[in-house]
Write a structure and sequence with these properties.
- The structure holds 2 protein chains of 2 kinds.
- Helix content of chain A is about 30%, strand content about 15%.
- Chain A is built from 5 helices and 5 strands.
- In chain A, strand 3 and strand 4 (about 60-65) form a beta hairpin.
- By secondary structure, chain A is of the alpha+beta class.
- A 5-stranded mixed β-sheet of chain A has the order 2-1-5-3-4, with helices on both faces.
- Chain A has helices at about 30-35, 90-100, 110-120, 130-135, 145-160; strands at about 10-15, 20-25, 55-60, 60-65, 80.
- Chain B is about 25% helix and about 25% strand.
- The chains are: A alpha+beta, B alpha+beta.
- The interface between A and B is large, with 61 and 62 residues.
Chain lengths: ~160, ~800
């Protein structure tokens, strides 16, 4: 069947529980859709090459780097961003990040939280090694990771 | 991995309330919820996205530029070229005296490009994708020129010259000498010679790149720059004359910043281009730097060679003198340089008692990205050099490295210690700090562990890195490079007010990037006002409209704990006085009878006679009739100014920084002799920054700086090929440490309060160079039984270690000992 290339496409995406219908350029990255179209600016961009993980969100419950996903690929999917992680109250994981001084500038933090939350969903009591492996795709330039790993391990214990 | 122990020996000097406590950070709540406001989060209706078309050549003449095809693309708003910039702006002010003073540097390349990635044309369009597409339609005709990327070759006759108007590639040169160097060498028992040491090129690569949203108000002629520049005062000094306006026409606004580490000081060229575009197009313009653009063009750390070094050593191990030729590679333009040519001298002798020093400093320009401040700016290079000297001397003459350090360290009883060049180390106990770090890392078991590693076929090495973190600059040091400059001293501003309903609002002139200024400022304020830390609102980040800034306002050079908190203390103490005065007027008593405690201004002898902060805030603001004299305004502004003199320009002598924090790092490495692959298996760091206002924040700075140092020692380098192509232009090729790269870490702190600061604090955060030093030292130790190579580079990836094992003679021939 012949197909005609299109440069715009309507997508329907559920983000943090709200369903949005938007016409987007087909080349728009999911991260730009979230940040520019939906003004959900908690998801950050640090590298443009899928290396740093600052843009990590959950796509149908799976952590993905939203700079490596097109908005059109999220058509019909459920996306969770850092804004959808907790409500007014901090989640135990967010609180643990603060308690353990696991953030300084806070730029990598949303991505770290989303990677860590996905880990905790799968493994509520991760070991230090589990956390290090789960977060190896997230770069932090401020903390040296020690407190981040500690915070996630502690949040796991709290949840267990 | 994460078992960080903290052993603390505290000498209390000031009253402890919130100060000294791990108060949870005020910043955290918004940041963990994704509610921070970074520059790229701010949008304006109809704004245009800016893309910089950059040079694909490291050195070329621009024959022609044709933007017409780009302008025809629907959705493109406009362009800016170097020809326009040359007409509309002045070249940037140069800090350098001759010959560097002759550099003509603009917002975009004018006539010629001098490094790969240099911005040539700016294109503005409706979307960032379109701006990028349009830039590909711009036709630039380049005539490539010969390239020079090696500082040593840049000095040679016949080398390609970057800036013809400088008559060569030298930007600055000067001889720095103190004591009687020749006499010390004549009296020495041993002279250790090291022909070449090289400190490699990297930077801290903050995760958020540079950028800004720039708006131009035609009615007032004022630009508003919502940006992440970390030193707006400096940016204004550079930008206002270039744009031919007063500094009052530039309103810098910063909010949350995603790390900076010095790398976000010199964004003024791009900001000027944005200002021109906003004015030209009559719309807001937004620029977010691509990661590759950051790597190719922004604020590389100074690469430095130390050539023909000689060290005078007495038979007992006392080191009396060194002399060397430092060759600094500034890259293509002088954006903050040649200040690196003097900043190193804040720590000229490192932590050691050398009294006789000669350093012949030359800085050259090469076809690489411009250097600008990077965490540990210019001191890191000098401190790595002094640590290398100590370890090479120990290695070659058979001294114990620990004993050699303890013998040559400046001793605690010498504090405050005046260095040969007039800098004053305010306090510290280096031998004790070394003992603490050795204890943390289990130094007494090293030989046992070495045998164990050997049994597994691994070479174990142990290394120490001592490092200073000089903070609170005396900008007068700039006059040692260029006597005509009119910069000296330092300052920082804070304001404090009591608002209508009793809210305490503290505003800072600082521009934090993760250092927790909102929290520590609130701790200081709450202790002075006798109230809960939660009721203090701290407005950090910059806004020229706040009247809370001075020329040196910003966040750089390890000074917040001194200048920023000093300003907070001054402003809040003045506010407290106003509050007590007003309470005394209402309660009809003497000011001395009033205290601030538990959220009230109350009579010391009668706590029932008390006014809540709300009442004090309301009276001057909303209920001020009936006072025979004006009630205090509940609004204070304080400028903190450290006491400095302008250094002696002839002798290059004087105090260049107010405080000296100290860190000693130690690590254990295991090297695979077959491959050169090595792992840091144990790591410890001890920090002394005087009084710690919030120990957890301090420890966080130690950890972060350590991680960056490990990255620089093992993985991170801005490597260029001979054509000037950057080989590490993204996070694939420029490997920054990940979770799995981090060794187990133990930290400890000691506190020797600074006698020179109002809180006993010292600036800190840049001591991480210790990590580079100790990895160099540990590798050299590991190779003792495998050819005795000398570590001559700060950057030691696996292949370099492999080369040292396979060809130890290549580094051995760089060292010679002459015993007299």
């Amino acid at each position: 069947m012949a197909t005609t290339p299109v440069s715009e496409k309507v997508v329907t995406v559920s983000v943090n529980g709200t369903t949005y219908e938007y016409e987007v350029p087909t080349r728009r990255l999911l991260v730009h859709f979230l940040r520019d179209d939906l003004a959900l600016t908690g998801t950050h961009i640090g590298c443009d090459t899928g290396s740093c993980g600052a843009c990590t969100v959950h796509l149908n419950g799976v952590p993905v780097k939203s700079c490596a996903v097109l908005a059109v690929q999220a058509d019909g999917a459920a996306v969770t961003t850092v804004e959808g992680l907790g409500g007014e109250e901090l989640t135990p994981l967010q609180q643990s990040f603060s308690d353990h001084h696991a953030l300084q500038c806070g730029y990598c933090t949303p991505g770290m939280l989303m990677s860590a939350a996905a880990l905790l969903d799968e493994n509520p009591s991760p070991s230090e090694e589990d956390v290090k492996i789960a977060l190896q795709g997230n770069i932090c330039r401020c903390t040296g990771y020690w407190n981040i790993v500690e915070a996630v391990v502690a949040a796991g214990k709290g949840a267990a | 991995m994460t078992t960080t122990e903290t052993e603390t020996t505290t000498t209390p000097t000031i009253q402890k309330g919130y100060v000294g406590q791990n108060v949870p950070r005020k910043e955290d709540r918004r940041l963990v919820q994704g509610q921070g406001t970074f520059f790229d989060d701010v949008k304006r209706h109809g704004m245009g996205y800016v893309h910089f078309l950059r040079s694909p050549y490291a050195h070329a003449r621009i024959a022609s530029i044709d933007v017409s095809a780009a302008l025809e693309l629907p959705g493109v708003y406009g362009t800016l070229t170097g020809d326009e910039v040359a007409i509309l702006t002045e070249p940037f002010f140069q800090i350098a005296a001759e010959p560097g003073a002759n550099v003509r540097d603009y917002a975009l390349a004018v006539g010629k490009v001098r490094y790969l990635g240099e911005p040539v044309v700016a294109v503005v369009a409706q979307t960032r994708e379109l701006a990028r597409d349009a830039s590909e339609l711009v036709m630039v005709d380049y005539e490539p020129l010969d390239v020079v990327v090696d500082a040593r070759k840049a000095l040679e006759h016949g080398s390609p010259v970057l800036h013809e108007e400088c008559g060569g590639n030298i930007s600055y040169s000067g001889l720095w000498e103190w004591g009687d160097v020749d006499k010390a060498f004549a009296e020495a028992d041993h002279v250790v010679k090291i022909s070449e040491l090289h400190f490699d090129r990297f930077n801290s690569t903050p995760l958020e790149t540079n950028g800004a949203l720039v708006e131009y108000n035609r009615g007032t002629g004022q630009w508003t720059l919502t940006c992440n520049n970390q030193f707006p005062g400096f940016a204004a000094i550079m930008m206002a004359p270039a744009l031919r306006v007063g500094a009052n026409k530039l309103r810098f606004v910063t909010q949350d910043i995603g790390g900076a580490f010095g790398n976000k000081i010199t964004t003024h060229p791009q900001l000027v281009a944005l200002c021109l575009l906003a004015r030209k197009l009559g719309r807001a313009v937004q620029w977010t730097e691509w990661r590759t653009d950051f790597h190719q063009s922004m604020s590389h750390g100074n690469e430095r060679w130390f050539l023909d070094t000689e060290v005078a050593v007495m038979a007992d191990g006392t080191m009396t003198a060194f002399r060397t030729k430092a060759l600094d590679d500034a890259g293509a333009y002088l954006r903050y340089e040649p200040l690196g040519g003097v900043i190193w001298s804040q720590v000229a002798p490192g932590m050691y008692g050398w009294r006789n020093l000669r350093l012949d400093f030359t800085q050259v320009m090469t076809n690489k990205a411009p250097c600008s401040p990077n965490r540990g700016y210019s001191r890191m290079q000098q401190l790595w050099f002094t640590e290398r000297i100590v370890d090479v001397v120990a290695h070659e003459l058979g001294f114990d490295r620990v004993e050699l350090r303890k013998k040559n360290y400046v001793q605690p009883e010498q504090m405050p210690y005046e260095t040969p060049n007039g800098c004053v180390y305010d306090s510290g106990d280096y031998p004790r700090a070394l003992d603490v770090v050795l204890d943390l890392i289990g130094y007494d078991t090293i030989e046992e562990r070495r045998k164990d590693a050997a049994a597994r076929g691994k070479l174990l090495g142990f290394g120490i890195g001592s490092t200073l973190d000089s903070g609170t600059n005396n900008f007068g040091q700039s006059q040692l490079l260029n006597p005509e400059l009119q910069f000296s001293g330092n300052n920082e501003v804070a304001t404090a007010k009591l608002d209508f309903f009793g809210e305490i609002v503290v505003t800072l002139g600082t521009v934090p990037q993760g250092q927790g200024h909102e929290t520590t400022a609130a701790q200081i304020a709450a202790d002075i006002l006798g109230c809960d830390v939660d009721i203090i609102e701290v407005r950090a980040g910059h806004d020229d409209y706040w009247n809370s800034h001075a020329g040196f306002s910003g966040t750089y050079a390890s000074q917040f704990a001194v200048t920023g908190l000093g300003a907070v203390k001054g402003a809040v103490e003045e506010l407290a006085h106003q509050m007590r005065t007003l309470a005394s007027m209402v309660l009809q008593c003497s000011v001395d009878d009033i205290e601030l405690a538990e959220g009230f201004a109350r009579m010391k002898e009668n706590h029932e006679a008390a006014l809540p902060f709300m009442a004090l805030g309301a009276i001057p603001n909303m209920n001020n009739a009936g006072f025979p004299i004006d009630p205090p305004q509940m609004n204070a502004r304080f400028v903190f100014r450290p006491q400095f003199d302008v250094p002696d320009k002839e002798k290059k002598f004087g105090n260049l920084t107010l405080t000296y924090s100290m860190q000693i790092h130690a690590c254990v490495v295991e090297v695979d002799p077959e491959t050169g692959v090595y792992e840091i298996v144990d790591y410890a760091a001890v920090d002394d920054c005087g009084v710690r206002v919030n120990p957890k924040i301090v420890e966080g700075q130690v950890m972060g700086a350590t991680a960056q140092a490990i990255g620089a020692a093992m993985f991170e380098v801005f490597a260029y090929d001979d054509e000037g192509n950057l080989l590490t232009p993204n996070f694939y090729d420029y490997h920054v440490p990940h979770t799995l790269d981090m060794p187990p870490l133990k930290t400890a702190a000691i506190e020797t309060p600074s006698p020179f600061t109002s809180l006993g604090t010292k600036g800190m955060g840049e001591g991480g160079g210790g990590g580079i030093h100790c990895v160099s030292a540990a590798l050299q130790d590991a190779l003792m039984t495998s050819g005795r190579a000398i570590v001559t580079s700060s950057h030691n990836p696996y292949h370099r270690v492999w080369e040292m094992i396979r060809h130890p003679e290549r580094s051995r021939e760089k060292v010679e000992v002459v015993s007299l």
